[in-house]
Amino acid sequence: MTMRARLRRHGARISLLFAVLFVVAAAAQTSVATPRSAEVGVVARVYDGDTLRLRDGRRVRLIQIDTPELGTGECYSRAARTALVSLVPTGTTVYLETDPALDRIDRYGRLLRYIRLNGANVNLELVRRGAAAPYFYRGERGRYADRLMAAASAAKAGKLGLWKACPATVLDPERAIGTGQSGPPTKTPPPTGKCDPNYSGGCVPLYPPDVDCAEIRALGIAPVRVIGSDPHRLDGNGDGYGCN
Hints:
single chain; 2 domains; globular
């Protein structure tokens, strides 16, 4: 074989190697763009601005953010829920993203997740719109903490959402949000004679369907004492009382 032929063969091998490396690199970039977790769900119900339920029964609490609690009369509580509904309406398929720096499940059995839709971080989008504020429970900062704080500062400076509607709100990620009262709390009593016998101190609706502490507080009966099996899972810390 001539020297020229050998050089041509060597050059062909190098070209083939570069082609293989290019394909591998392209595949790696694609895998980064695609959610690494196969954890997906379909939205069945939006409880409030930061909590929803999936069709398979799992409840999801959006981590690192907080919104005014629905049913308490807090300023912007209804608007916060409307904002989340507009982003992930019933029937929407969403990705659930965990944060390695944070807990995966809270004391109420809810999944602690970032919600992803079409590549967008819904938790962050709520803060950008002024529908939520950063909340770093126990001071724990997740992977998007800096971006959440920057988005909140911009929303507050621009008087977006709750920052305009509720001027008494303070941007403090170490505490749950407090927007002040927009009116008297709304209390919706459960059907007469249909109280769950597993609880005392207030008429907790029969299970099913499931109710959470936001709904119990909206009824004006929190805390309640757990005297049975706690089907609603209201007693997260096992002290015998729910929603305290």
